[in-house]
Fold:
Amino acid sequence: MNHDPGAAMGELGRDDPGTDVAASGAMPGRTLSDASRRRFTAAEVGSVRWSATAPDRLAVVSTEGGLRSAWAWDLATGERRRVSDASAGAEEALVTPDGTAVVWWHDPAGDERGRWMVTPFDGGDARPLFPGVPDAWASGISMVRGVAAAGFAMDDAYVVVLAPDDGAPVEIARQAAPLGVGREWPQGCGGVSSDGRLLCLRDAAATDIAHPELRVVDCGSGATVATLLDPGRVIEPIAWSPVPGDARLIVTRETGDRRRPWLWDLVAGRATELSIDLPGDVTDAWWYPDGTALLLLHEIGARPALCRLDLATCSMVTLVDRGGTIADAGVRPDGEVWYRYDDGATPPAWLAADGPPRVAPPGGPAPAGRRWERVPCPNPRGDVIDAWLLRPDGDPPYPTILHAHGGPEWHLTDGWDPLALAYVDAGYAVLAPNYRGSTGYGAAFRERLRGDPGLPETEDLLACLDRLIADGVADPGRVVLEGWSWGGYLATLGAGLHPDRWRAVVAGIPVGDLVAAHYESAPPLQAWDVAVFGGDPMAVPALYHERNPMTYVDRVTAPVLLIAGERDSRCPIGQVMVYAHALARRGHPVEVRTYPEGHHALRADERVAQAELILDFLARCLAGS
Structure:
């Protein structure tokens, strides 16, 4: 939710005819407006992938039909076909290097444990891309002509598998410590070199899952060719040169406090920082087809821009700088730049840097929303916390949703958010801080939670809320604490730590019992807990006890709404119900909604139902105020 500096506070989106906003002084609405409902149900395009040899054949993740699924889109003919299982959907899809098939992650139970499937682009049955590999959690995938590589997290080990186009899969690495192929997100990059000889792994054997070593191995023998490690820092493999035989890998490293692009030359045996004059972070990069230039995604203060860097001259040209959110991008074989853009007023679409949308969902766009306002807020430690504000029509002070984002290694920009817009349509202001632990503000800011999670974020959330109250924007008697995933954890924690601040608490896919959540979650999440807390609950029991929402559950005074996935392997349902039971045991008002999926609700009708439930719950909690 990155603020557009040209937009004035309080004057955004006032003339949107599709917005149904509660009048000043009136009770917030308890039902979804028509515009809000259509923002949830309008088709939306997520990731888009193509191959260098068949660029008109796209693998697309789309919500067309009401379920987030993998689709085959043919730009030449305009034909679209869903390739993933219509009962389970899919969140990730790639196109094979020759453009003949779409590869997608099949998660039949919704717990993120599954397998990579491949479906012919022109129609036919799906088959496993790595036959014989049991269902597991995905840990990266990469494909080039001749070979595909993928990492898998099993219950007792992490494995890496190679699958030649003309042979059976071969396991080339297995270990107890976290191990993955190429980048964690987006999938399909930074793994196998363009000639199929080298494979870059993320290896946490000597570090932890948050700061893995990069290890390049020979695809033929599995032998280690080179390693790259900055202890306590994040290094990420971005993409190999597209030129066959060119063993250069673009990586991002934290130089000083910021992420910068480096070229790792495996032949020369050195990594060199690229000489660029950009403040902030370079968070992503894509090669131009001839290997002479890079497309860089640069971000400072949660404002993104796309730049073209000539590698020979180090000259740079800005291609896109419009605020909002750039969630993904790429360079087409003809050199055209495509990127996925949205902002608080504009639903997501894939645009060309020099032209109109290139990939748009059917049925027309959702009703417009409104841009977010940036509100810098000092915290008691002397940091300036970037918060982002949506305000409803009418005069303040407003009933206010204090939103804690997930991650925590994530940050909010001026982005499209149907639920936040539904809150605003109903008459609430929404305040969303990028608390300490968020990405985008330097390594030290992000690393602040190591050994100290939960309390710094809560302190920052309250500091931003107090700024809004002091400015007369938020009504201190009508504040709702709300969050999802890690934000759901902060909601349950804050409900007991600061019970007098909230009229209601909404915790989506949350952590309720921190100790139980650790032991019930998937192996990568357990490894992440160890990295952040400095050990598991038995190693640092006092810290887990102090930061556990269950420790403060008997202090909660506000009504609580919990929303959880029945097959969630990140924030499992069991520990959510332990927290709910503890509230119910003492007769405290608590409501629970579960849905039959995992960490994300992939169906539009479920997201609508959740929004309706939240608005009704909040209206009941705020009645009489």
Observations:
- Residues 604-622 form the longest helix (19 residues).
- The CA atoms of residues 123 and 425 lie 43 Å apart.
- DSSP finds ten helices and 36 strands in the chain.
